[in-house]
Design a protein that fits this description.
The protein is an alpha+beta fold and 138 residues long. It has helices at 10-13, 18-27, 42-48, 58-65, 80-88, 101-105, 120-130; strands at residues 2-8, 31-38, 70-77, 114-116. Bound molecules: guanosine-5'-triphosphate (GTP) and magnesium ion (MG).
Length: 138
């Protein structure tokens, strides 16, 4: 089985959508093996999204991610990385398939409710960014 890092973003936590989003993950067969609610500083958000530092939206992205609490979590399951991205839907909610989290809940390409790791290497890095091994309870 595989693990991936998921973040429920500020636009979703502030609208009390954590439970509905978690239901989508669990219904898809993903197990939440770690989860915590935290409020990132802009510097921490920038460190997490450092690969995007030269993109024009970097400032907007890090400011948004530090604007309110997020829920960071580790999802586990068969093909968890791809499965999670399927449940999330396309980055831009306008392009997201029916039934996906972003189609149902996201407000815009920036405020798009969830983050999910995109490959095994980034999943390992992103999980280690937020969690110690002791916090992962499979
Ligand atoms: P993730 O699954 O979130 O990684 O999305 P992605 O891999 O499909 O998109 P990408 O890595 O290009 O962008 C990462 C995140 O940056 C997105 O989820 C958005 O929150 C944000 N982002 C992407 N494009 C824009 C944009 O044009 N404007 C703003 N404000 N944010 C953007
Ligand atoms: Mg990405």
């Amino acid at each position: 089985t595989e693990r991936t890092l998921s973040i429920i973003k500020p636009d979703a936590t502030t609208r009390n959508l954590t439970g509905k989003i978690n239901a989508k993950f669990e219904d898809a067969g993903l197990r939440i093996v770690a989860q915590k609610r935290i409020h990132l500083t802009p510097a921490q958000a920038g460190q997490f999204y450092i690969v995007h530092k030269d993109r024009p939206f970097f400032g907007e992205l890090t400011e948004f991610m530090a604007s309110a609490p997020v829920v960071v979590q580790v999802l586990e399951g068969e093909g968890a990385i791809a499965k999670n991205r399927e449940v999330m839907g396309a980055t831009n909610p306008a392009d997201a398939a029916p039934g996906t989290i972003r189609k149902e809940f996201a407000e815009s390409v920036g405020e798009n409710s969830v983050h999910g790791s995109d490959a095994p290497e980034t999943a390992a890095e992103e999980i280690a960014f937020f969690f110690s091994g002791l916090e992962l309870v499979g």
